[in-house]
């Protein structure tokens, strides 16, 4: 992903990838335990700040990357808004029932999905997969046979996409494109793609085994991935900012703060 | 025979999963196109997301393959910058773990449609647990929630069960699965007697 665009190298790029991954997964746990809309908006804001100002990508690139966010928001919130439980009915038509509670809950879910999407993109945009797997081997003692398999497989993605195009074109030439249903078409794509991938993976694995890539004995690494002062700054940023929005939302809520979950009285 | 996964098994599992990742990305627009109506028609193709686990297991048939496949498929999606963000990674881990549990319960010996469909249902249950916490689906009105779950169950069995088995049957016909299975399977049969 990050090879698609040129980006300035920012402090986010230099953070230890394992630490970044653990932090982001912890933020996921924090976010699914936020049940107040105020706090959710604050959480989104904390991530948005980093997303806009710290990834090193131009605003144009960030805007392009943010386009699917509209769809994410709509698709996540709509079913809860239209069909959620709630008492204060705002609008009712046939099976559709929009209540104040379900509206707030739907918006809450939309913002939650947005914050996850942004966190994920933040990670993908500022982390090189190779550095991530080196770091996982060095910091988390991930077995090299897993790490190198992942790295080899990631390298195959462009080849597989090219092959997919070739299969599509070959089938188009033979007029197989529009006929039949979704499942048959998918099967017709999946089988050549999978069988070629398995053959290629087998050949690569044989040569990697020949070069002792699977041995788990002590090995040396070309890249050494360590820690820096930026790591401390990264963690402090989230601790401080999240603490701040938590205190603010308790003392000075700018929205009626009620639990968005449905709690029958 | 060496216990556990060899590098060949691992690499093939991961490559299969990433091929699925590409297929997911291609059919993604379809998922989006049907999603915003709120009637959960999207759930009818949701089972696709568990397929990597059962297809990889049907090809390699070793402990840990289903879990690894789901982790690889989801981390591939995550690293490519998926629109769904990091939740795919956690969903992947849970779904793979739940499929793995069923396969473990049958000692990795049975590979028929029944067991594979059970694994599919288990993955489906895992994803629903995540949705209860993350998506508050328990707060949907009852008819809507029922629709949601029924659609997802149907698609799990259809894609992860029936469709996965039929894809692997077709792959077996091409002979490519012999690359990974031939010697070890014969060895097992020799040992069983």
From TrEMBL, chain A:
<feature type="transmembrane region" description="Helical">
    <location>
        <begin position="103"/>
        <end position="126"/>
    </location>
</feature>
<feature type="transmembrane region" description="Helical">
    <location>
        <begin position="146"/>
        <end position="164"/>
    </location>
</feature>
<protein>
    <submittedName>
        <fullName>ABC transporter permease</fullName>
    </submittedName>
</protein>
<feature type="transmembrane region" description="Helical">
    <location>
        <begin position="232"/>
        <end position="251"/>
    </location>
</feature>
<dbReference type="GO" id="GO:0005886">
    <property type="term" value="C:plasma membrane"/>
</dbReference>
<keyword id="KW-0472">Membrane</keyword>
<feature type="transmembrane region" description="Helical">
    <location>
        <begin position="21"/>
        <end position="53"/>
    </location>
</feature>
<feature type="transmembrane region" description="Helical">
    <location>
        <begin position="65"/>
        <end position="83"/>
    </location>
</feature>
<dbReference type="InterPro" id="IPR003339">
    <property type="entry name" value="ABC/ECF_trnsptr_transmembrane"/>
</dbReference>
<keyword id="KW-0812">Transmembrane</keyword>
<keyword id="KW-1133">Transmembrane helix</keyword>
<dbReference type="Pfam" id="PF02361">
    <property type="entry name" value="CbiQ"/>
</dbReference>
Automatic annotation (TrEMBL), chain B:
<feature type="transmembrane region" description="Helical">
    <location>
        <begin position="44"/>
        <end position="60"/>
    </location>
</feature>
<feature type="transmembrane region" description="Helical">
    <location>
        <begin position="113"/>
        <end position="133"/>
    </location>
</feature>
<protein>
    <submittedName>
        <fullName>ECF transporter S component</fullName>
    </submittedName>
</protein>
<keyword id="KW-1133">Transmembrane helix</keyword>
<dbReference type="Pfam" id="PF09819">
    <property type="entry name" value="ABC_cobalt"/>
</dbReference>
<keyword id="KW-0812">Transmembrane</keyword>
<keyword id="KW-0472">Membrane</keyword>
<feature type="transmembrane region" description="Helical">
    <location>
        <begin position="88"/>
        <end position="106"/>
    </location>
</feature>
<dbReference type="InterPro" id="IPR017195">
    <property type="entry name" value="ABC_thiamin-permease_prd"/>
</dbReference>
<feature type="transmembrane region" description="Helical">
    <location>
        <begin position="145"/>
        <end position="168"/>
    </location>
</feature>
<feature type="transmembrane region" description="Helical">
    <location>
        <begin position="7"/>
        <end position="24"/>
    </location>
</feature>
């Amino acid at each position: 992903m990050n090879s698609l665009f040129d980006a300035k190298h920012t402090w986010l790029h230099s953070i230890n990838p394992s630490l970044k991954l653990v932090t982001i997964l912890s933020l996921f746990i924090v976010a699914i335990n936020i049940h107040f809309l105020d706090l959710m908006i604050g959480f989104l804001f904390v991530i948005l700040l980093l997303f806009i100002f710290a990834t090193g990508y131009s605003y144009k690139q960030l805007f392009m990357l943010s386009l699917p966010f509209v769809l994410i928001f709509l698709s996540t919130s709509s079913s809860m808004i239209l069909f959620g439980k709630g008492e204060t009915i705002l609008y009712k038509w046939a099976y559709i029932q929009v209540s104040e509670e379900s509206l707030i809950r739907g918006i809450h879910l939309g913002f939650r999905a947005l914050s996850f999407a942004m966190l994920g993109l933040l990670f993908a945009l500022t982390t090189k997969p190779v550095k991530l797997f080196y770091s996982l081997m060095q910091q988390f003692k991930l077995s090299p046979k897993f790490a190198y398999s992942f790295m080899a497989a990631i390298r195959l993605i462009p080849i597989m996409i090219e092959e997919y195009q070739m299969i599509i074109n070959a089938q188009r030439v033979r007029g197989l494109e529009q006929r039949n249903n979704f499942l048959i078409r998918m099967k017709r794509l999946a089988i050549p793609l999978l069988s070629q991938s398995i053959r290629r993976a087998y050949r690569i694995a044989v040569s990697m085994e020949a070069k002792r890539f699977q041995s788990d004995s002590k090995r040396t690494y070309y890249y050494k991935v360590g820690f820096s002062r930026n790591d401390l700054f990264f963690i402090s940023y989230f601790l401080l900012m999240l603490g701040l929005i938590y205190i603010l939302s308790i003392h000075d809520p700018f929205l009626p703060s009620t639990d968005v979950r449905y709690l029958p009285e | 025979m060496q216990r556990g996964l060899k590098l060949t098994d691992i690499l093939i599992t991961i490559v299969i999963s990433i091929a699925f990742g590409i297929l997911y990305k291609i059919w993604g627009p379809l998922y989006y196109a049907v999603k915003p109506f709120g009637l959960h028609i999207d759930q009818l193709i949701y089972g696709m997301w568990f397929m990597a686990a059962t297809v990889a297991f049907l090809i390699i048939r070793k402990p840990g393959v289903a879990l690894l496949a789901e982790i690889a498929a989801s981390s591939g999606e995550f690293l490519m910058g998926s629109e769904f963000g990091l939740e795919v990674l956690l969903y992947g881990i849970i779904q793979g773990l739940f499929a793995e549990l069923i396969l473990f319960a049958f000692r990795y010996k049975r590979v028929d449609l029944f067991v594979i469909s059970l694994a599919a249902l288990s993955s489906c249950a895992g994803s629903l647990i995540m949705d209860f916490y993350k998506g508050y689906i328990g707060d949907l009105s009852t008819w809507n929630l029922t629709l949601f779950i029924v659609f997802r169950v149907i698609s799990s069995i259809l894609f992860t069960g029936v469709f996965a088995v039929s894809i692997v049957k077709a792959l077996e016909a091409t002979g490519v699965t012999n690359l990974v299975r031939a010697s070890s399977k014969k060895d097992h049969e020799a040992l069983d007697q």
